[in-house]
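Lab notebook, bench 4. Still working through the backlog of constructs that have no structural model yet. Next entry is a single chain of 480 residues. Request: give me the structure tokens for it.
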Amino acid sequence: MSLLHFIIPYIILFFFSLTKISCQETCSSIQCDVDQPKISFPFGIKELQKDKQCGYPGFNLECNYYTKETLLKLPSTLGKLYVKDINYTKKEIRLYGGTYGCLPQRYMESGGIDISPFRGFASHTYRFYDCPLSIKSDSTASETLAFYAFAATCITAFWDAFVTPYSSTDPTQVRVNQFLIDYGCLLKASVSVPIPSRIVSNDSSLSKKQNVSIYSYNLVTDDLYLTWTDPPKNGSPGTSGTPINNGNGFYLGGKPICETAQCSQAGNEPEIDYPFVINDDHKNVGCGYPGFNLTCNILDKTVLKLPQSGEYLVRKIDYTNKEIRLYDENNCLARRLQQQSLNVNLFPFKAYAYQTYNFFNCSRSIASNASALPVTKIPCLSNQNITVLMTVSSSSTTSRDEDSNNVTTVLIHRGCQILAPVTIPIPFSAITKVSSYDFTTDDIYLTWSAPNDGRKIGENNNWKKILGITTSVLAFLVAP
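Model written out:
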């Protein structure tokens, strides 16, 4: 038995060293074809590399079987994109849709773009419009469009598709968007899109960067530019060995060192801890759980991008009750919820329950006489001529149908215009008492189920491997 105790540790170390050496020797630079980008760490192509552990989780590429072009599959609805170039010095990858790939169409359908583990050098909101065919023959409209909008002819479902940048703080962008709406163009989507480094190289302020040169980036004909943070070559920080993806973003070769983080150095932003992680936090590579990725904007605010509902700022994360509070950066949740419903797939998050509201456009005189009704005024949607009122819909299980129907009847009879209903998540405290929650002044509350801690899974699988090897060795040594 003493001999067994002596040699078993050395046999185990021998097996692990073989794995490590094999990976290091076989992970050389490769290409899908001679005119294609060179692939090296952190990228990898499994079908061309003998050792399946080359590259790093999330940086997997593939070769088109017929054209030999290089492809990257992003986790969002953008799907597979062609790789035009990889600049390892600048950590920049250029992607395009291919001959028949319409990037604007993919942007529009995505609603929000999940590109982890990559990120944009910055991002900007673009609006997609379906315009009347007559807009091109209008000289005034044509002049405006030539400078401030991009024709997206590949979006064939539209009469005349145009894409233009939008920022509520840029007078030019506000004016152009209002011009399109006044002309009769229909706003079909509003999407935050990554923009290349050249757009953000003119000034230290992001708002100035975007205002100065945003129109020099043609979202329709140009490529998608993304960047990344280099992960460690030999495992997670503080560990050794080659990183292996166990399906949860963690590694069998050791446990990542995961520290809490914040977007603001002043300490007035939520603490980020497992299962959440900040995308560009190079100190916490390999931490977090898929779908719980956060980002920090230029104002050091914490941002969560919901797959189909866009970006929201994070006010608070309650790890004990598994609750996250979201708010709108322009303090007008009502407008956001009218444009992009939250009654969709929020995975990995979910609502405690949903509540449906009816919106009404009323004249100021009618609204001033509606104080006796159970309605709420929405200042951020109102103007000097119109007051927007809101009431609980009769379709909601938490409303009193008779009262709600009476309110709707009274407002319509008085001349108010009823708008499309909006269904939103409500907090746990409001499930039994709807009046305790007013989303016009409060936040959006979502919850989540605790995912498996991939760090623990990694450790368990590691011990299982060691146990398996040890058992095999023992069986061999004690066999007659």
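Notes after review: The mean pLDDT is 76. The two ends are 15 Å apart (CA to CA). Flag for follow-up if needed.
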